[in-house]
């Protein structure tokens, strides 16, 4: 199923370029779509189901609704990124691969967890390699592919960059059980992103495509969830914005641990995708904004909306608003995003 789109630019006689965005109904993908639309591109997005398609095409409150009405956003149902992607990639000039396929089983093994992500991406690359119109591929990875989850005091002054990889290997991932290890899903996610990048790099080296492939590694991504139309939607989020809901469930609600000390705005992630396409950049890019703690978030909530204080988690009043320094002035780990600043022109907020 798909919607027809009109790709004629109102400014001239040239048709607007089209970007295929996988997982168009997602949190970051929606911001990426808005960026491309504002820059004069049209969108052809994939979703897994007719329900997800309807949320984009049939909801007048959806942020993409005006563009759907104008014929600038089309949707293709792709239940499995490992299947036929011909309709999705037909006549597009770029691809923003953002979808993160989920395991089919509710209690997957490590192999079942990682395979959909890697297989779907490789299938997309194979389909794209048959296209005569595609000029650029961009892929979403994660800072999780770079970072070691060791405590902050075990990695003072560490500066992560594009040369870093997390230490979680196949043997470790195969040996841990999510039923008995609460960190297993986090480690599996991080390892799957690392092995996804390995697979993409190997494919590029073997196939030498005519177009560049850029891969982005953002840390926690926080801002407005444009893909939600109602407050109830937030309860179903698994993205970073879903963490925010834990901070607004009342004074006694526990503040979750921070698995990252650095955040980035999804609008900056969207700019990275767009600029990499426009500038035809290839390679791995660390993205980063500023440091944060959830303590700082709830304090900001209280300052901005004191009338809603009863809804905001109290947490530990003595907790620091920013990652504290070590006993001898050591600094908490951070991210060197100078490559994305230099090559993609990012100035993250």
From TrEMBL:
Residues 84-253 form the Thioester reductase (TE) domain. InterPro entries: FAR_NAD-bd, NAD(P)-bd_dom_sf, NAD(P)_dehydrat-like. Keywords: Oxidoreductase. Coiled coil: none annotated. Pfam families: NAD_binding_4. It comes from the Eukaryota. GO terms for molecular function: oxidoreductase activity, acting on the CH-OH group of donors, NAD or NADP as acceptor. Belongs to the NAD(P)-dependent epimerase/dehydratase family. Dihydroflavonol-4-reductase subfamily. This is Thioester reductase (TE) domain-containing protein. It comes from Kwoniella heveanensis BCC8398. The lineage of its organism: Eukaryota, Fungi, Dikarya, Basidiomycota, Agaricomycotina.
């Amino acid at each position: 199923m798909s919607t027809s789109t009109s790709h004629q630019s109102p400014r001239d006689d040239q048709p607007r370029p089209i970007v295929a965005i996988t997982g168009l109904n997602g949190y970051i993908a929606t911001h990426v779509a808005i960026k491309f639309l504002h820059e004069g591109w049209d969108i052809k997005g994939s979703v897994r189901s007719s329900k997800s398609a309807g949320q984009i095409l049939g909801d007048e409150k959806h942020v993409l609704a005006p563009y759907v009405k104008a014929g600038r956003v089309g949707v293709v149902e792709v239940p499995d990124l490992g299947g036929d992607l011909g309709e999705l990639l037909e006549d597009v000039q770029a691809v923003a691969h953002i979808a993160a396929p989920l395991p089919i089983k509710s209690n997957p093994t490590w192999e079942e967890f990682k395979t959909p992500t890697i297989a779907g991406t490789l299938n997309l690359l194979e389909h794209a390699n048959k296209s005569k119109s595609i000029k650029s591929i961009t892929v979403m990875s994660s800072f999780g592919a770079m970072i070691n989850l060791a405590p902050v005091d075990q990695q003072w002054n560490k500066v992560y960059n594009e040369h870093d990889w997390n230490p979680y290997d196949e043997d470790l991932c195969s040996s841990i059980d999510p039923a008995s290890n609460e960190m297993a899903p986090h480690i599996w996610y991080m390892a799957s992103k690392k092995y996804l990048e390995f697979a993409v790099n190997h494919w590029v080296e073997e196939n030498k495509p005519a177009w560049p492939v850029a891969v982005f590694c953002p840390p926690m991504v926080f801002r407005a969830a444009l893909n939600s139309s109602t407050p109830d939607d937030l309860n179903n989020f698994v993205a970073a914005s879903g963490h925010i809901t834990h901070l607004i469930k009342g004074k006694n609600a526990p503040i979750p641990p921070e698995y990252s000390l650095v955040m980035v705005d999804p609008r900056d992630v969207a700019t990275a995708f767009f600029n990499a396409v426009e500038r035809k950049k290839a390679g791995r890019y660390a993205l980063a904004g500023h440091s944060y703690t959830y303590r700082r978030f709830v304090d900001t909530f209280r300052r901005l909306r004191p009338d809603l204080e009863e809804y905001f988690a109290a947490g530990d009043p003595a907790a620091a608003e920013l990652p504290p320094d070590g006993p001898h002035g050591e600094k908490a780990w951070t991210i060197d995003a100078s490559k994305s600043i230099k090559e993609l022109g990012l100035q993250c907020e």
